[in-house]
């Protein structure tokens, strides 16, 4: 074989390795973006930040949904008889509270037939940084209008 054939075969091998490497790198980046999208914002930070309010939205859709789930989970822990089938989400305020892993949540739900709104506030400590899957948390300073519902 002459040198030209070796160069062509070498170029093909380098091209195939380059394509394979690029595909693998893009797959890794996609997985990393997915992992990051589930992280609780400022989890290890000790300062306080407003993450979600009527004026501020620093949460992505996944994080926002999980904080709604956490708020309802706090309510269900205090009031196991509460059913959210007749209550709609109305608003949510989330603040990263002082201290690592701590969040302040103010959740408002509404009865769609009576238009009555019920406010619940609690401080929550998340057990892990990822919000993906089932979330374990501790809560304190719980107050809710739903206690009388």
Describe, in plain words, how this protein is organized in 3D.
By secondary structure, the chain is α+β, with helices and mostly antiparallel strands. The chain folds into two domains: 1-37; 49-148, Nuclear Transport Factor 2, Chain: A. Helix content is 36%, strand content 27%. It has helices at 3-37, 61-78; strands at 49-52, 88-96, 102-110, 117-126, 137-144. A five-stranded antiparallel sheet has the order 1-2-3-4-5, covered by helices on one side. β2 (88-96) and β3 form a beta hairpin. The chain is elongated. The termini are far apart.
Q: In total, how many beta strands?
A: 5
Q: Ends: how far apart? A: 87 Å
How large is the count of helical segments? 2
- How much is the average pLDDT? 91
CATH architecture of the largest domain: Roll
Largest sheet: 5 strands, antiparallel
Query: Largest beta sheet: what is the strand line-up?
Result: 1-2-3-4-5
Helix-strand pattern: HEHEEEE
Organism: Latilactobacillus curvatus
Keywords: Membrane, Transmembrane, Transmembrane helix
Transmembrane segments: 6-25
Protein name: DUF5590 domain-containing protein
Core attributes:
149 residues, alpha+beta, Nuclear Transport Factor 2, Chain: A, 2 domains, five-stranded antiparallel sheet, membrane
In short:
By secondary structure, the protein is of the alpha+beta class.
Topology:
Blueprint: H1 3-37, E1 49-52, H2 61-78, E2 88-96, E3 102-110, E4 117-126, E5 137-144
Antiparallel strand pairs: 1-2, 2-3, 3-4, 4-5
Protein name: DUF5590 domain-containing protein
Transmembrane segments: 6-25
Keywords: Membrane, Transmembrane, Transmembrane helix
